[in-house]
Predict the structure.
Amino acid sequence: MKSDEIRERFLKFFEARGHKILPSSSLVPQGDISVLFTTAGMQQFKPYYLAPDNAIKDFGTKNVTTVQKCVRTGDIDEVGDATHLSFFEMLGNFSFGGYGRREAITYAYDFITKEMNLKISYVTYYKGEGVVPADIESKNIWAEIDPSLDIREDGADVFWGPTGLNGPCGPTSEIYCKNADGADVEIWNIVFNEYFCDGSREKLDKGEATLKKLDVLGIDTGMGMERLVTIVQGKKTVYDTDLFDNEKTREERIIADHVRSAIFMITDGARPANTGAGYVLRRLIRRAVRFSNQPLDKIINDIQNKYKGIYNLDDKGEIAKEEKKFQETLEKGLKEFEKGIDPFILATTYGFPIELTLELANEKGKTIDLEDFNKKMAEHQKLSQTASAGMFKGGLANHNENTIKLHTAHHLLLAALQEVLGKSVKQRGSNITEERLRIDFMFERKMTDEEKKKVEDIVNSKIEAGLDVIHREMPLAEAEKLGAEMEFGAKYPEIVSVYTIEDKNGNQFSKEFCGGPHVENTKILGQFKIQKEEAVAQGVRRIKAILV
Ligand code: SER
């Protein structure tokens, strides 16, 4: 069976069982800044697990299905083996209170064994830990459906999520099938979203976040498309399927994988850069260039052709541009590396991403002084930050959770100030640290206590309303037409990034030119408080505020 047919059969299978087929969301997430890329099918649906009724309003049903484009770079060192990819498609079915464990498990079993005619090697269920009990219900359902199944208990690996700073999460049940080598391949993850975690997965694992039971059980499943195709087509690795060109060596596979990711990222709006998603993209392209001894154009064409009719892929010449840029310094940089490694020079003069230098050092059994590198880079960035301040708008000290929350509160504050003091209130500067936000704005007199109270109340009401923070990129002229807030005197590029804070009906409370990052929804901000309002110059006031 061809991969195109498998994709189609998956969606149709769930459509026939009452699911609405929805499009993949962008690989570059809209709103959720705590992840650089979309890593899971459920990501675009996070809010619906908390407010299931909205699914009816938005989709007309509580059950939906997608094929989601995903990027995960956490496994990058494993790319080149039989199953790991930096880009993959995730086949998913989701339910926001429409059905529970029995249906989710039965659908998965039927799809694999009847629709795809495959044999399941084994399945897993969660053994339980802390406040989360063992998932005996899933174990029993599996045993009931197929008494001959090998059903295994598993630990932390089968507790999923949350993605990003917080979100729904829960125990999972996984399905494994055997590839042509007889090796077990994990293909499907069926998540039972029963909890809301108020911190990241990292925090949860450290015991620094808590789980609260959700009102309604949510279903979130994800199946690795390339892995499923491997099994269906009776192959040993993802590269032997019709989604690839039978790449044999580790190097060939890394190149094919990285270029494929890069094309998808660029198609969805990412561009090579020194920070954030653009940096990941740059790293992937440069890593591919290092492993390749010929131009990447043929591979780019092959990949774009392979997905014709499914995805309209277009790398817009960006890979070739990046390739050329790096080719020019790669050889000299490698010579420099041989002479003795200064990762800072390699990064700033020869454009070697630090990860590449680490990899080279590793291959040669050499060590490098990361601490020294980080220190030098931090100083270097401080100098160049001023140059890009226009885009990032007034130094965000760092991108940790509190700073990000305060950044969103900052947008709410500016909009509230305009509501109370008038549209003439324009931002003159801002500064956000982990502890507090600071905004400078044009206004000619001291604010009264009533005005301050009113502003606080508005911000807090917007927090409570649970407004969505939405990220869009658009031409400068369009953003100006939209009336998005600009910082006075700042210069903006042709394509700008705009953040709006809006309700489910699209009523925008705030719209600003901004490079992010922001929280996904205002709900998580807590209580907003103004600490101080003072003059900093003639006609310029300053507010310091916190979230408690
Ligand atoms: N969210 C789960 C995963 O990414 C299942 O979709 O594996």
Remarks:
- The radius of gyration is 25 Å.
- The pocket of serine is lined by residues 40-42, 92, 160, 189, 191, 220-222 (CB under 6 Å).
- Confidence is low (pLDDT under 50) at residues 385-395.
- The chain has three domains: 3-240, 250-388, 395-547.
